[in-house]
Amino acid sequence: MRIEVTNLRRYFGRTKAVNGISFSFDSGQIFGFIGPNGAGKTTTMRIMATLDEPTYGNIYINGISVTDDPEKARRLVGYMPDNLPTHRDISVHEYLDFFARAYGIHDPQRTEVIESIEEFTNLLGIRDKTLKALSKGMKQRVSLARALVHDPPLLVLDEPAAGLDPRARVELRELLKVLAQRGKAILISSHILTELAEIIDGAVIIEHGQMVTAGTIQEILQGTKGAEAATITKVLIRPIDDIEPLYRALLEMPHVEEAHLAGDHIEADIAGDEETACELLAELVRREFRILEFKQHRAHLEEIFMNVTKGHVQ
Amino acid sequence: MKAMLAHIDNRMNPIVIKELRQAVNGRFVASLLILFLMISILTFSLIAMSAAGSSNVITDGGQDFLFAMQCVLVIVCMVFLPGYAGLRLAGEWSDSNTDLMFITTIKPRAVIWGKLLATVILGMMIYAACMPFMMLSFMIRGVDLPTIVMILLIGFSSVVIGIQLGIFAATLSTALGFRLLLGLLILVALGYLAWGTLMMSHDAIDFGLFSSWDDGQMWAFLSSWLVMLISVLSLLFVFSVARISQPTANRALPVRLTMSGVWLLNTILLSVMAIIERESMVIVVYLYATSIALGLTLMIVVCERDRWGPRIRRTIPRRGLFRMIAMVYYSGALGGLLWVAMTFGLALGATVIVFDMADRSSAFIRIELDEAIVNCTRIVLFAYSYSMTALLLRRFMVGKILRPDHTWALVLVLIAIGSVLPMLVSMMMWGTSGMWNHKEAWMLPNLMLLFTDEHQLRSSSLLFYGTWAVLVTLLSGPWLVGQLHNFKPLEPNADRELQAS
């Protein structure tokens, strides 16, 4: 299944909340949706969940347009908004049962579905607790369970980790990984980029309603470095012995563009790809340098984000 | 049996199930039921004790008890149930909280229906708790069984209207100040409804309206009550559904269809009554009521969109004639204006026809019809002129600070200015003496002029509103043409191209 966002625009009067966003991703992929506050993330997600319609453009979920056929599209989307369930006097199980009924899932299938989701989201132990008695982390799990109740192939999660404690975040991250392995396409927005970096396959970065970059992490990295810089591989080398001889040797090597000392390790830019980096390591070993650590230095999502955005808010 | 129950369970409105579960889990319903039982026992004891020493108990003790119980039931249900239904919906739904309404495939109609039905079931539980006590009034004597049943039904149907009113209020604006004001207005409306119901119950008990099933008056009363019930309930229902429907949907379609249906139902009922009773004034009153309703509708239709989103445009018929008909029933200010014009024309036609059929004898009565037509035309032109002027001002002057859906507020401001400012200017220039008679031109924009029975003023104001309406229509000409031009279906794959709306 493929999710295609084509030239999406959403104007509120003269405000261009979303202005020409296009990207796509597939089943089994987790895509991060990143941007500063007011960039247009929630608006895009609401359109994807059929809660709003675009001024121009469209979103296709497995070929079904969210504008032309919102009822069909809604069955394919599990939307988790940034607000938590507000219902009082209703237990977790009753809440999920209500949504299962609302999606037209009939018994006995309904009972099976709810039980399996409660098990998956680890809600079995608290299924009889009322929603008002739950912590924020538990409510987030209930919210995710609700989004999963009709088994949608696409999950749209708006800031699911906001306000969660570290344990709840880790649990959520693991759940999302499992869901992606089960073939769900997941679009997730979050401000906690370090968290996102560990689970996403790709990202869409938007600012001021416009798309800055989109693609897999590798594609984005290459895009931000530029064509020429794409052939540079950054490595981190930590020797077990004295660092100075290794540093001098590196400076004399043909592929090493730049090297500098950074405490107990050396950071070097190698002209070439990962293959060249492997050859460099082999050469160092051949010269009997004892290397404790040799690793490719990847740019963090935060670095990418800071590089490509300008901090505009509308 | 098990399969049948499972089938029913699967088919039930999910909102009803959720609401009833929450009602059972919460303390409100249990407390209310206990309270009612205590009030019923207390009332019964008090009436019984006071009647013990009186000879009244032999003749009409049951009447007092029945009316006392009806008062308790109607007043308490009218306060608690609409409040309960309204607060529950308002707590779950707002423009910013999409938790319930749109995420699932459940339709807004089912949401409102579920809320109404669940609260009606709670009301039935309360009535069921009180019914045995009310039946005791039959044993105390003075009231017959049909009257008891009809009194209960009338009281309960008023409570249902009250519940729907509470639900409708919950779907309106989320601004706190407006909600407080609205709450107050709803409370007043519920008070009037309860008062009317109780007065009607009192008269019915006193005069034994429901004791004879052959009485034509009873059937006339019942049919009027039924039509009123259907009209008010269906209108409040579709208004509520439209309020919680997505802004991208064609919200006007069910509303205007229902309004047309309600108008037609009332036209038929009142026409039949006027012809059978040979009472032509019935249809004149109908024309006044229709005109006032259409005047209010005009203030609301100018708040509607003047652009159609892709989701709506995809459903616009392609053929010219169908497109014209569709426009009347599509969300949009121009469609609303056309609907009002069409309905007013039909109401005028129906009035003239039925008036002649009901009473051809008196030339004097005929003058009443002519006056009614002039007055009703003034009402509609007054509302049209102010509403269109507000629309014009919004588009050219205050568009940045006033949202289209708040244009009604501008209409009210203009009416207030039009009613007060010219009068003040006139008073400053000529003083208060003879102002009304000799400086009438300054009074023409005044709302109060609609109620004048002075012939000269009526004619002047008709001319004034007519001229104003023509002027404002001419000034809005480009907008009207633009609306007609923009009301067209979206071309296939148009979303893939950037095009000017």
Task: List the total number of helices of chain B.
Answer: 19
Helix share, percent of chain B = over 70%
Mean pLDDT of chain A: 84
CATH architecture of the largest domain in chain A: 3-Layer(aba) Sandwich
Query: How is the biggest beta sheet of chain A arranged?
Result: 6 strands, mixed
Query: Would you tell me the structural class of the helices and strands of chain B?
Result: mainly alpha
Overall 3D shape of chain B: globular
Short description:
The complex is a heterodimer of chains A (314) and B (501). By secondary structure, chain A is an alpha/beta fold.
Report on this model:
- The complex is a heterodimer of chains A (314) and B (501).
- Chain A has 2 domains: 2-221, 3-Layer(aba) Sandwich (Rossmann fold); 231-298, Lrp/AsnC effector binding domain/regulation of amino acid metabolism (RAM) domain (Alpha-Beta Plaits, 2-Layer Sandwich), CATH 3.30.70.
- Chain A is built from 11 helices and 14 strands.
- Chain A has helices at residues 41-48, 70-76, 92-102, 109-120, 136-148, 166-181, 193-199, 217-229, 243-252, 274-286, 301-308, and strands at residues 2-12, 15-26, 30-34, 56-61, 64-65, 77-80, 154-158, 185-189, 202-207, 210-216, 232-239, 256-262, 265-271, 291-296.
- In chain A, the strands form 3 sheets. Chain A has a 6-stranded mixed β-sheet, with helices on both faces. A 4-stranded antiparallel β-sheet of chain A has the order 2-1-4-5, with helices on one face. In chain A, strands 12-13-11-14 form a 4-stranded antiparallel β-sheet, with helices on one face.
- In chain A, a hairpin with a 2-residue loop joins strand 1 and strand 2.
- Helices cover 76% and strands 0% of the residues of chain B.
- Chain B has 19 helices and no strands.
- Chain B is an all-alpha fold and 501 residues long.
- The N and C termini of chain B lie far apart (58 Å).
- Classes of the chains: A alpha/beta (314), B mainly alpha (501).
- At the A-B interface, strand 1, strand 4, helix 2 and helix 3 of A face helix 1 and helix 2 of B.
